[in-house]
Amino acid sequence: MNDFMSVGLHRLWKDRLVSKLNPFPGMKHLDVAGGTGDVAFRVLERIKSVGHRAMQGTLTENEEDTHIYVCDINPNMLNVGKKRAAERGYSEEHCLSWIQGDAEALSFEDGSMDGYTIAFGIRNVTHIEKALSEAYRVLKRGGRFLCLELSHVDVPVFKEIYDVYSFSVIPTIGELVAGDRQSYQYLVESIRRFPNQEKFAQMIQEAGFQRVEYENLVGGVVAIHSGLKL
């Protein structure tokens, strides 16, 4: 469904998210609401690429210390991720862990992560402020927070076209492809209720993050927000 609705662009958006994260060998990274593994696999592959370029194919001690944690409240999504990991040859990877958990009450220790990502997940969190507070808590000093989320289009003509697509086309695609119009109608409505880019940036700042910024993609269809714990 992601491919249908975004015309495959969601893959490029996730690539951009991981590029902004700038993963490095030895990092401890937490991907929340990432049960399918889309972001985690990208982070791991980027780290391996960096390590292999540096050491011409041999693992460094730092790379061996790398650990990616995938946290999702939905066990079914985690099972999908585990299956996909096995298909990619990651089933025996000691550096990839799958954990069922709530973004509002993470089980990780204070200051334990170098990076935190959440892609298309925070919009569905009941209390966004709690999720942001937890992200801040688990990050180390210098750690980076990154959020990829459907957002608000700010280009006038494109906004009108996007509104028609959102309220007419997306629910129809959901009905035809997934047999579930109601869930995709909810998706569109939840996007409209989500804070706009400036408001969400303010919420991230209020959680304690500094150097908060955002990048609009496709005119604001999605936005990547980032912040540092300093």
UniProtKB/TrEMBL annotation:
Question: Quick one: which pathway?
Answer: Cofactor biosynthesis; ubiquinone biosynthesis
Q: Where does S-adenosyl-L-methionine bind?
A: 36, 72, 102-103
Report the main location listed first in the record: mitochondrion
Annotated Gene Ontology cellular components are: extrinsic component of mitochondrial inner membrane
Stated role: Methyltransferase required for the conversion of 2-polyprenyl-6-methoxy-1,4-benzoquinol (DDMQH2) to 2-polyprenyl-3-methyl-6-methoxy-1,4-benzoquinol (DMQH2).
Among HAMAP family, the record links this protein to: MenG_UbiE_methyltr
Name the family the entry cites.
Answer: Belongs to the class I-like SAM-binding methyltransferase superfamily. MenG/UbiE family.
Task: Provide the protein name.
Answer: 2-methoxy-6-polyprenyl-1,4-benzoquinol methylase, mitochondrial
Organism the protein comes from: Sorghum bicolor (Sorghum)
